[in-house]
């Protein structure tokens, strides 16, 4: 069985932003030579999310607005203090909580060398505390 | 146009690539441990915050800790690369030729202010031997001096050197020098505010960070301890926006200031007008 791990990097430009990473994932699966298996997509951060939805700008704006509405910027969060381990003020509780809502990974089956996805399904890395330089992983397992 | 008068270029990957020792010094002495990011992230953070220009503050701790938390040359290099940056200098007050080094940094490297951190550099800011010659040099060269005041988050920073009242005689002795007392001097906020209210050459920056969000901290210090009425009447032209990025993010710092409910004129002055005037070395009326 093959286990192929790709670590990828991406520059985000806004505080909240949905970045379409679908073509990259498809391309890596195609290059892998794996005919039957699974492709996992994981974020390496706790203030980003990975999600799937229809790839339309209006929906991207709605998802961003939903996250900001469900998790308001101010709500008496306890995570608002200096973190000696970072040397930074931890003032991004809303970013963490929005990430917790979205989750940090998705996966798709691979069959006959292609990922099985719905025709409208778009894979997004969601920036929740940008702009930052972010990393995510595509892990392809199979034969 | 917003100006952030208080940032530290301690997370810039390009600097570490050229100077691996710098990263170790930033961890060990400055106590900053977040992974480095490309310089572009700094600029994008400014964009996201609505900040047009940012002062880059180095700290020369050669005698106290055997290192510089970004050198003058590095600050100048970044400022030369990107005109949105305003490079400040730092010199080690323990060195006898510190005023000459400052003059060189200003005249040869084009740096536009002096950053001193008595807590981390471990010097007495009321020392006539070590500190006054630097304050006087700033006045002669018409550049501001920004001093760390109040609690230091650097592991070895000593608060005893950072009490605002230590500066009062120097402020009197060097009336041509513009002093910026960082962090509103927290926890000695009222001492710092008293100096800024009384002396035309004393200013404060808003990089207050001890607990809570920037909005919480600014509401407490400016809104409750000093009072927004006092800010509007007596300090509207004496407070400069500073975030202390990347110890705290610039976006939420700007939002915290805007949430105070200041008058539009005062908010604009704090966000940029007061810094612009100081950098052009004109005194408030």
Topology:
The complex is a heterodimer of chains A (143) and B (285).
Chain A lengths: L1 E10 L5 E4 L1 H11 L4 E7 L4 E7 L2 H14 L10 E3 L4 E3 L2 H10 L2 E7 L2 E2 L5 E7 L5 E10 L1
Antiparallel strand pairs in A: 1-10, 2-9, 3-7, 3-10, 4-9, 5-6, 7-8
Chain B lengths: L1 E6 L5 H6 L1 H11 L8 H11 L1 E6 L2 E3 H4 L1 E3 L2 H10 L3 E3 L10 H10 L6 E3 L1 H4 L10 H10 L3 E3 L20 H6 L5 E3 L7 H10 L3 E4 L8 H22 L3 E2 L9 H9 L5 H16 L6
Parallel strand pairs in B: 1-2, 2-5, 6-7, 7-8, 8-9, 9-10
Antiparallel strand pairs in B: 3-4
Helix pairs in contact in B: 3-12, 6-8, 10-11, 11-12
Label this structure with key terms.
heterodimer; A: 143 residues; alpha+beta; Jelly Rolls; five-stranded antiparallel sheet; three-stranded antiparallel sheet; 10 strands; globular; B: 285 residues; alpha/beta; TIM Barrel; five-stranded parallel sheet; three-stranded parallel sheet; 13% strand
Description:
Chain A is an alpha+beta fold and 143 residues long. Chain A has a single domain (7-142), classed as YjbQ-like (Jelly Rolls, Sandwich). Chain A contains three helices and ten strands. Chain A has helices at 22-32, 57-70, 93-102; strands at residues 2-11, 17-20, 37-43, 48-54, 81-83, 88-90, 105-111, 114-115, 121-127, 133-142. In chain A, strand 5 and strand 6 form a beta hairpin. Chain A is globular, with a radius of gyration of 17 Å. The mean pLDDT of chain A is 97. Chain B has one domain: TIM Barrel, CATH 3.20.20.140. Chain B has 285 residues and is of the alpha/beta class. Chain B is globular. In chain B, helix 3 runs parallel beside helix 12 (250-258), helix 10 runs parallel beside helix 11 (214-235) and helix 11 (214-235) packs across helix 12 (250-258). Chain B starts with a strand and ends in a 6-residue tail after the last helix. The interface between A and B is medium-sized, with 23 and 29 residues.
Count every helix of chain A, treating DSSP H or I runs of 4 or more residues as helices.
3
- The CATH class designation of chain A is Mainly Beta
Structural class computed from helices and strand pairing of chain A: alpha+beta
Helix count, DSSP H or I runs of 4 or more residues of chain B = 13
Give me the strand/helix succession of chain A: EEHEEHEEHEEEE
Shape of chain A: globular
What is the count of distinct domains of chain B?
1
Q: Reading side by side through the largest sheet of chain A, how are the strands ordered?
A: 1-10-3-7-8
Query: Would you tell me the structural class of the helices and strands of chain B?
Result: alpha/beta
Q: For this structure, what is the CATH homologous superfamily of chain A?
A: YjbQ-like
Which spans of chain A have pLDDT < 50 for at least 5 consecutive residues?
none
Q: Which residues of chain B form runs of ≥5 with pLDDT under 50?
A: none
Distance between the termini of chain A: 5 Å
Strand order of the largest sheet of chain B: 6-7-8-9-10
Mean pLDDT value of chain B = 96
* CATH-defined fold name of chain A: Jelly Rolls
Estimate the helix proportion of chain A, in percent: 10-25%
Largest sheet of chain B: 5 strands, parallel
**Overall geometry of chain B:** globular
């Amino acid at each position: 069985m093959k286990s192929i791990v790709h670590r990828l990097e991406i520059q985000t430009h806004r505080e909240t932003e949905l970045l379409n990473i679908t073509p990259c994932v498809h391309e890596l699966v195609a290059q892998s030579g794996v005919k039957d298996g699974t492709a996992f997509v994981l974020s390496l951060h706790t203030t980003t999310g990975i999600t799937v939805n229809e790839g339309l700008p209006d929906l991207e704006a709605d998802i961003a607005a939903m996250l900001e509405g469900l998790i308001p910027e101010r709500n008496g969060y306890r995570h608002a203090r200096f973190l000696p381990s970072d040397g930074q003020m931890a003032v991004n509780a809303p970013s963490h909580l929005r990430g917790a809502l979205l989750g940090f990974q998705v996966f798709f089956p691979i069959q006959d060398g292609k990922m099985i996805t719905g025709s409208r399904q778009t894979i997004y890395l969601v920036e929740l505390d940008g702009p930052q330089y972010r990393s995510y992983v595509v892990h392809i397992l199979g034969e | 146009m917003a100006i952030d008068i208080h940032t530290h270029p301690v997370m810039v990957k390009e600097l570490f690539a050229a100077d691996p020792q710098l990263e170790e010094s930033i961890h060990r002495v400055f106590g900053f441990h977040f992974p480095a990011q490309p310089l572009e992230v700094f600029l994008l953070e400014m964009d996201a915050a609505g900040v047009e220009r940012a002062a880059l503050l180095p700290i020369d701790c050669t005698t106290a800790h055997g290192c510089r938390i970004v050198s003058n040359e590095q600050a100048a290099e970044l400022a030369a690369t990107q005109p949105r940056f305003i490079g400040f200098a730092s010199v080690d007050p323990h060195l006898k030729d510190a005023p000459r080094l400052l003059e060189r940094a200003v005249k040869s490297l084009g740096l536009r202010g002096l950053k001193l951190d008595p807590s981390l550099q471990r010097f007495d800011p009321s020392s006539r031997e070590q500190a006054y010659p630097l304050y006087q040099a700033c006045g002669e060269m018409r550049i501001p001096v920004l001093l760390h005041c109040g609690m230091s988050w650097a592991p070895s920073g000593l608060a005893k050197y950072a009490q605002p009242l230590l500066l009062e005689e120097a402020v009197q002795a060097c009336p041509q020098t513009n002093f910026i007392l960082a962090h509103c001097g927290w926890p000695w906020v009222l001492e710092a505010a008293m100096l800024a209210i009384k002396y035309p050459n004393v200013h404060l920056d808003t990089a207050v960070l001890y607990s809570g969000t920037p909005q919480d901290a600014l509401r407490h210090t400016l809104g409750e301890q000093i009072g927004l009425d006092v800010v509007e009447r007596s300090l509207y032209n004496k407070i400069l926006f500073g975030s202390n990025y990347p110890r705290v993010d610039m976006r939420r710092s700007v939002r915290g200031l805007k949430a105070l409910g200041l008058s539009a004129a005062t908010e604009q002055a704090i966000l940029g007008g007061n810094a612009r005037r100081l950098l052009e070395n004109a005194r408030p009326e």
